[in-house]
């Protein structure tokens, strides 16, 4: 278990999530279902 009482880990995930959403999905050459699964994992 990780103590995130200062919110540092949550902030890091938010930054990664925002960067991931801004990736040009045409350049990724990744199926949409894989991309959406990644997003869901980052959210959870």
Explain this structure:
This protein is mainly α and 44 residues long. 68% of the residues lie in helices and 0% in strands.
What's this model, at a glance?
By secondary structure, this protein is mostly helical.
State the main characteristics.
about 70% helix, mainly alpha, single chain, about 45 residues, 3 helices
Largest sheet: none
The helical percent reads 55-70%
Q: What percentage of amino acids are in beta strands?
A: under 5%
Please tally the β strands and state the result.
0
The structural class is: mainly alpha
Could you spell the SSE succession in H and E letters? HHH
Give the radius of gyration.
Answer: 13 Å
Topology:
Blueprint: H1 8-21, H2 25-28, H3 32-43
């Amino acid at each position: 278990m990780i103590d995130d009482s200062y919110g540092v880990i949550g902030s890091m995930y938010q930054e990664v999530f925002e960067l991931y959403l801004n990736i040009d999905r045409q350049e990724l050459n990744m199926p949409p279902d894989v991309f959406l699964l990644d997003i869901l994992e980052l959210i959870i």
